[in-house]
Write a structure and sequence with these properties.
mainly alpha; 4 helices; elongated
Length: about 160
């Protein structure tokens, strides 16, 4: 079931990226902002960074996770793809969903604890979420923008 949900999210995200690129190409070709000033274009522009933020979130949250043995995140038995030789063998895993964090420590409060999530994940998650909120918030106002920016006969040479 989760595979079907993941595939649906992937299809929606990639479709939004492609259709947004087509609308941008049409705007560049016509040298007008009119093709971009439709509510659905802004919705697609909101879905695209949200999709990227979701991929970054999943990437960070699944860091070091071996689906065959979930208890092996920090103890050196992870799959080769996720193995980090700089991480010492440890037993305690502290997770945080927002901000995305997976910390491996030998005991609570260990000063030598290591963060498993790459540093780029949280900025991408928050920037993507902010851009998505911004575009979604502007979508209802595209009609006003279109009337003001795309008046017939308002072109200046």
């Amino acid at each position: 079931m989760i595979v079907f949900i993941g595939l649906a999210v992937l299809v929606v995200g990639l479709t939004s990226m492609v259709t947004l690129a087509v609308h941008m190409a049409a705007a560049v070709r016509s040298r007008s902002a009119e093709p971009l000033l439709h509510p659905w274009v802004f919705v697609q522009a909101a879905v695209t960074p949200l999709f990227c933020a979701g991929l970054a979130f999943l990437s960070g949250h699944m860091t070091g996770f071996d689906p065959t043995d979930p208890s092996s995140i920090c103890n050196g038995r992870v799959s080769r793809m996720f193995r980090d030789p700089s991480v010492p063998e440890s037993r305690l895993v502290t997770r945080s969903v927002v901000p995305v964090s997976v910390v491996c420590e030998k005991y609570p409060g260990d000063p030598g604890a290591t963060e498993q999530v790459p540093g780029w994940v949280n900025p991408v998650v928050f920037a993507g979420g902010g851009l998505a909120l911004g575009f979604a918030g502007l979508a209802p106002f595209t009609g006003v923008l279109r009337r003001r920016l795309c008046r017939p006969g308002a072109e200046t040479n």
